[in-house]
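Fold this sequence, please.
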Amino acid sequence: MDDPDLAWLRRVADGDEGALERLYARHSTALLRYAQRLLGDREAAEEALQDTFVALWQGAGSFEGRSAVRTWLFGICRRQALARAGRHREESLPVDYAEAFPDGAARPDDVVLARADAAAVGAALARLPAAQREVIHLAFAAELPHAAIAQLLSIPVGTVKSRLFLARAALARALPGATAVERSRR
């Protein structure tokens, strides 16, 4: 596996603080957004991010290479955020979650999503089941491939694809203009 972060991770395992700072600079923004999506609270997300990098510092030598370092970091972050959330996991997402979606899509439902009002997208995302929201975020905001998402969530790749399909379909139906998109697909 040609992973540009692997050399940095090995240096972290050897106690190199500069390498830890490098990995933090490369991944902290995406990890913080992910933790905030999971927790719904910026302060709790920042604490989960800090816990993620403490765990990275302490466990860098245990990396087995079964995934990309970035995927491994998202797994650590997910565990830290969910441990912090406990049983009272936040189910709603902030409106700025819509920023995670690209605006140059070719399919009609993608065009509707890209042009939709941010508040409408945020509300539509909040109505999705948590499992679909998480897959949407990992695929679009974190830009993880389907196989990495499947490994991170311990689900089959087909389940990742199904959740993405269902989430995108639900979002297209929930957003203004979706009716025309649905008619054009028939």
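Residues 87-106, 179-186 have pLDDT under 50 and may be disordered. The two ends are 42 Å apart (CA to CA).
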